[in-house]
Amino acid sequence: MEAFSLMAPELLLAGQTIFVVLMSLLVKGDKQADVMRWIAIAMLITFALTGFVLGRPEGTSFNGLLIVDDFSHYAKLIIGLTAALALVFSRSYFKTEGLDRFEFSVLMIYAVLGMSIMVSANNLLALYLGLEMQALALYIMAAFNRDSLRASEAGLKYFVLGALSSGLLLYGMSLIYGFTGHLDFAGIAAVIEADGLNVGIIGGMVFMMCGLAFKISAAPFHMWTPDVYEGAPTPVTGFFASVPKFAAMALIARLLFGPLEGVFDQWQQIVVSLALVSMFVGAIGALSQRNIKRLMAYSSIANMGYALVPLAAGTVLGLKGMLIFMTIYVITSIGVFSAILQMRIRNGMVEQITDLSGLSQTNRGMALVLTVFFFSLAGIPFFLGFFGKWYAFGPALQADLWWLVVAALVASVIGAFYYLRVIKTMWFEEPSQEFVDAPRSLRWITTSSALILTLLILLPFVTIPAQGLLDSAAAALF
Amino acid sequence: MFSDLPILPALVAIPLIGALFLAFVSRLTQADGRDQMERNAPRTALLVSLIVLLLSVVLVIDFDASNPGFQFVDEAPWLGGGIDFRMGVDGISVLFILLTAFLTPLCILASEISIKERKTDYMIAFLLLESLMIGVFCALDLVLFYIFFEAVLIPMFLIIGVWGGANRIYASYKFFLYTLLGSVLMLAAILWLYAQSGVQFADATTDMRALKNLDIPGNVQTWLWLAFFASFAVKMPMWPVHTWLPDAHVQAPTAGSVILAGILLKLGGYGFLRFSLPYFPDASVQFAPLIFTLSVIAIIYTSLVAYRQTDMKKLIAYSSVAHMGFVTMGIFAFNMQGIQGGLFQMISHGLVSGALFFCVGVVYDRMHTRDIAFYGGLVKRMPIFAAFFLLFTMANVGLPGTSGFVGEILTMIGAYQVSPWVAAGAALGMILSAMYALHLYRETIFGEQVNEKLDVITDVTGREWLILGLLAFFTILLGVYPALVTDVTAASVEQLISEFQAATAVPVEAPELAPELAGVN
């Protein structure tokens, strides 16, 4: 019975997938996709909040396969809510593109279920199962617009490279299993602590990190990102840019601070180099991009680099910094993509940066919120993005990684250049084209995420309890 | 009498509220009400900035000049972990708040005519800018300070980029990225200070007052000093990182230039006084020769560069770099005259260079060119303007009786005590400043009027009279009675110097002791 209450959110989602598929036989016609979507959204929100409603229970279940603690509660909260938002903003796009099928909601729930297993994995097998479950759902989502050449290409590319990364991950896992004789995290940690390190464990760790670096699109494993982001339908890109990144980051944290804690000196070097390469590849690669989705792809590569900086510190504060940074990044990504989804020009969606020219005169509200998002991504105070960097880089500095912090700050200045270009296009240039009447239903998402990014820091009665929650989430892994 | 009221948060909040009000009203305005909105926005902004001015006058009147510590302190919990909301002013910062509050209404007044389109947006940006600038001088928490310090870039970027001249995009990018690169290095140093405070104190904190007591080892001080220096030197701007300034000034609209020269450049000098000297005294002593060298180069080199300019604004921009050289020279003399002079020079330069940019704005609004060769013989068409322009040119040169003189002579007295050669170099700069300033004046105001287009130019309007008259009044007032400024700053500067000397006393004597010890052994 206890296992049930611990696993309530996951069981809820698993039951939901079956329920939805069955229901699709009963509800037919135009309403089908809508009904399924609203059910899925309600379920995702319930999923996100269940842990908190039940008083944040802790423990392991399924014979230690999965662990539930404050860290997984927090991760599920962010994943569930963001996925629900992603479903909301996919609605109008799929309707206008004639792609509105209920399977999308089912895939979303599968993906979230996979991510939920990832963030609460306590065993290498659970880790792999969760990862593959979400990855398979994501491949299909990328190619959801199956008649589009670009989308099919994106899906295929994502699948091939994703399969490669899974192969690397599996190989690493098998090495670690072979050299420690354990699949469960506690067992691996105990063996490493008792017997020390050997080449097999280190090699396994390296392969696993390579596989996971694919998932967070950290350079040099980032090649798929721009193409997939560009090819996938825009709401799917918005989803890719936020939720799976958060889940994979959480998984990396769980792995590094759990079973591989004893390999800290070795994995620190890997994390540092991934961070360093990612932020510069992201910052410099974005300079020449003209397409907003590709720009956001490079921006996410750079941001994953920044998010790895606090992990490299290997401290509780570092983990907390990573969680804060990723949360803010997720809020910003959702905001940017829901803003893009609200703007249509005559021949389709806004895709090029130049499509935004003179937006401050044609659509001031939208220009304002986009300005907030891009300044926040550039890490300019007083937007929340600055505080993300503050909490992310502080712990790294404490761990004597000052050169990494300086490199990250310099990369963020390079990054500011291309974020500024978007702002410049909106404010300094004359309008070049008319916008077609766009759905206004998503306005509340953009407005509220912009307000969060601007005003949250003025509300100490929110920031201080939120810090308490993040502290306990980070402490759960130590 | 008002010191228990939250006057500083109010000073920051009122322009912010004004900006939000304008933003919401303009959002709700229908298309047919746009003209009215554009007409009323400057007046609303003016009203808001006048309220701020009134409040800041109350602040200064109520300010106890004999108290060297922070006054009007407000504290509230904010982010937790020692990062709290803290505001307060001392003698060093209080006058900058008044200067900001004084220049902003003038800028708004000038912009009401010279800005033709998107006036509402312009006023929003300006009020936002005012709020952030006042915030920088109020902040007593390092994070809060950094937020205001860097957020200032946003409205200024928009002001240059949206309402600037032909090459505005290049200038706004250069301004933004240059200053951002400097600021992020300071951010790294701030993060280090925060981390270190957690090690040395019971609780980590970013309280600017408490961080003075950090014990920072010498080699780390060097690096931290350099990180702060990177930020302040760019803001100041010091030679050789000054190249963004002429571009930004030339492209910015008149009021943008006034604020840039009047307030934003002062953030650098303020930062040196607030952080570099108290936090890193040993490193400051170590780097003082570097600062002197850069200052003298700036004074002489940029004066010569200014002489060769054909654009009026560019000339004044280069002269700003030279005048800021006096400020850094004075600050790093580490004595009463030098630092007092540096502070006075900053206030005075805020008035004088602001006034000069207004003067350029006056002729630019009429003729739409800033080319020096275009003008000539203006004295016949615009006698009142010529008189004002003369006064401000002389103040820029440092003529006794104007505020420009006091700052320059004090900084040179301060520098002379440390190194006569530095003072001599700076004095040479004063001569050069007369050269370029008189050159500008002669070419534009005197001489024969060769250009027929100038036949239609008219003298100053009532609005311009008011702006220039107010600035002229204060330029002369501070020139004949500088104690108005120095009395307010004296106590805080004295405390700064005594703390500085206490902190550096041991290392300065150490080299003298060393040979004796060697002899004993």
UniProtKB/TrEMBL annotation, chain A:
It is a multi-pass membrane protein. Residues 121-415 form the NADH:quinone oxidoreductase/Mrp antiporter transmembrane domain. Keywords: Cell membrane, Membrane, NAD, Quinone, Translocase, Transmembrane, Transmembrane helix, Transport, Ubiquinone. Its EC number is 7.1.1.-. It comes from the Bacteria. It catalyses: a quinone + NADH + 5 H(+)(in) = a quinol + NAD(+) + 4 H(+)(out). The chain crosses the membrane at residues 6-26, 38-54, 74-90, 102-119, 125-144, 156-179, 199-224, 236-257, 269-288, 295-317, 323-345, 366-389, 401-420, 441-462. NDH-1 is composed of 14 different subunits. Subunits NuoA, H, J, K, L, M, N constitute the membrane sector of the complex. NDH-1 shuttles electrons from NADH, via FMN and iron-sulfur (Fe-S) centers, to quinones in the respiratory chain. The immediate electron acceptor for the enzyme in this species is believed to be ubiquinone. Couples the redox reaction to proton translocation (for every two electrons transferred, four hydrogen ions are translocated across the cytoplasmic membrane), and thus conserves the redox energy in a proton gradient. This is NADH-quinone oxidoreductase subunit N. It comes from Algimonas ampicilliniresistens.
From TrEMBL, chain B:
Residues 139-427 form the NADH:quinone oxidoreductase/Mrp antiporter transmembrane domain. It is found in: Endomembrane system; Membrane. Residues 83-131 form the NADH:ubiquinone oxidoreductase chain 4 N-terminal domain. Its main location: membrane. InterPro entries: NADH4_N, NADH_Q_OxRdtase_chainM/4, NADH_UbQ_OxRdtase, ND/Mrp_TM. The chain crosses the membrane at residues 6-25, 45-65, 85-108, 120-137, 143-163, 175-195, 223-241, 253-273, 285-308, 315-334, 346-364, 384-406, 418-438, 465-484. Signal peptide: none annotated. It is a multi-pass membrane protein. It comes from the Bacteria. Keywords: Membrane, NAD, Translocase, Transmembrane, Transmembrane helix. Belongs to the complex I subunit 4 family. This is NADH-quinone oxidoreductase subunit M. It comes from Algimonas ampicilliniresistens.
